[in-house]
Design brief:
This protein is of the alpha/beta class and 404 residues long. 41% of the residues lie in helices and 15% in strands. The protein has 2 domains: 148 residues, Aspartate Aminotransferase, domain 1 (Alpha-Beta Complex), CATH 3.90.1150.10; 240 residues, Type I PLP-dependent aspartate aminotransferase-like (Major domain) (Aspartate Aminotransferase, domain 2). Bound molecules: pyridoxal-5'-phosphate. Pyridoxal-5'-phosphate binds next to helix 4.
Length: 404
């Protein structure tokens, strides 16, 4: 008799595909059925990586930079990251001991969680938030504990009361994302100081994902929580990536910065899954962080134009209010007055208007009643997508008014 074939470990049942991946499956189906669908869903910049960065990679390859990398990160990249953190964030980290190169923020976050969590530890997670944080928390033995954000005055905010209400003695870390996907909030220094006091009072670790830091609007600027005090720096793991800032999503490169003990623990974890980003990719990343920064300003200006187009395109739809993002390239649209679930609205938009957005509930219960619209892509995609979204929402709005 042949024994039963082995099945995947139980641990894999804890893991979930992201909302974007699940919706992509629906979009593929619609496309396979011959429908032409416009997507305003993904967080994938449509810019090409700036040429000087590509050239640095090509040069590294020509120079034979193809051997195993230093597992902490190539010295050149660690030095460039430390210099960037000092220059732009007012933070001092020792490139020898306090920086770790990672394959994107994804690896930085997973590595931090694996290094930080014991079985059953809770991670306080603002709600709504990037849904791909859930699975790595569970994989590390942790339990996500949502902290409902408050939507008031056209902005999502996270108050101390909500943090205190969510806290339990099992809480080990707070995972923060500023600028905050999907809400578009950029935490102010004041807000961060309040959150920092909570983190210190409760003896927590702060994992700070700052991947959208370069994309802020108007006079708003990103503040890195660790820069607020020595006490907070001592308990923060800063995670960053080149994916969004330099349109390098496919290069898979980022870095973490933290006190030596955390970086040592994270390095041990990282070595079990990876040996770090490819050596020639690290050379390109060092060039990105240390080279000319005009490309970043140009992309930011273009995102600002797209943001204005989204806000203009969704104006004056009864029961619909687009929230002006302070940072990042997503706009949340408040559709609570339409009286339908956000997933239902998303599906109707796909079916009736052939446009794809993400329902806010995918990012947590506190995201219900909103839709996330991406303007990571511009040009024709954004123009056509917005027109469809406008028409689709107008139709739903008229329908819901007629019914009430
Ligand atoms: C908040 C946030 N963190 C991390 C990531 C993943 O970043 P990376 O490409 O650096 O792995 C994303 C990607 O969309 C994101 O939105």
């Amino acid at each position: 008799m042949v024994a039963r074939a082995p099945e995947a470990a139980r641990r894999t049942a804890l893991l979930k595909a992201t909302a974007v991946n699940s919706i992509l499956a629906e979009v593929r189906q619609a496309r396979a059925a011959g429908r032409e669908v416009v997507s305003l869903m993904r967080g994938e910049p449509d810019f090409r990586t700036p040429p000087h960065i590509v050239e640095a990679c090509a040069r590294a390859l020509r120079e034979g930079r193809t051997a195993y990398p230093d597992n902490r990160g190539e010295p050149r990249l660690r030095a460039a990251a430390a210099a960037k953190l000092a220059r732009e964030n007012g933070l001092r980290y020792d490139p020898e001991t306090e920086i770790l190169a990672t394959t994107g923020a994804t690896m930085g976050i997973a590595t931090a969680l694996q290094a930080a969590l014991d079985e059953g530890d809770e991670v306080l997670l603002p709600d709504p938030i990037y849904d791909a944080y859930q699975s790595p928390i569970r994989l590390a033995g942790g339990v996500p504990r949502p902290v409902p954000a408050r939507l008031a005055g056209g902005r999502f905010a996270l108050g101390r009361e909500a943090l205190e209400a969510a806290w339990t003695p099992r809480a080990r870390a707070l995972l923060l994302n500023t600028p905050w996907n999907p809400t578009g909030t950029v935490f102010t220094a004041e807000e961060l100081a309040g959150i920092g006091t909570f983190v210190e009072d409760r003896g927590l670790l702060l994992i700070s994902d700052e991947i959208y830091e370069a994309i802020t609007y108007g006079a708003l600027r990103h503040v890195s929580p660790a820069s607020l005090s020595e006490g907070l720096r001592a308990r923060t793991i800063l995670v960053n990536s080149l994916s969004k800032t330099y349109a390098m999503t496919g290069w898979r490169v980022g870095y973490a910065a933290a006190p030596k003990a955390w970086i040592d623990a994270m390095l041990l974890v990282l070595q079990q899954f990876s040996r770090g980003p490819a050596t020639f990719v690290q050379d390109a990343a060092a060039e990105a962080l240390g080279g000319p920064q005009e490309c970043v300003a140009e992309m930011r200006a273009e995102y600002a134009r797209r943001r204005d187009a989204v806000l203009a395109g969704l104006r004056e739809i009864p029961g619909v209010r687009a929230l002006a993002p302070e940072g990042g390239f997503f706009a949340m649209v408040d559709v609570r007055e339409l009286g339908l679930g956000s997933d239902q609205i998303r599906r109707r938009l796909l079916e009736e208007a052939s446009v794809v957005v993400v329902h806010g509930a995918a990012y947590g219960a506190a995201g219900e009643g909103t839709l996330r619209v991406s303007f990571a892509s511009g040009g024709e995609t954004l123009a056509r997508g917005l027109e469809r979204l406008r028409q689709g929402l107008l139709a739903i709005s008229e329908g819901s008014r007629a019914a009430s």
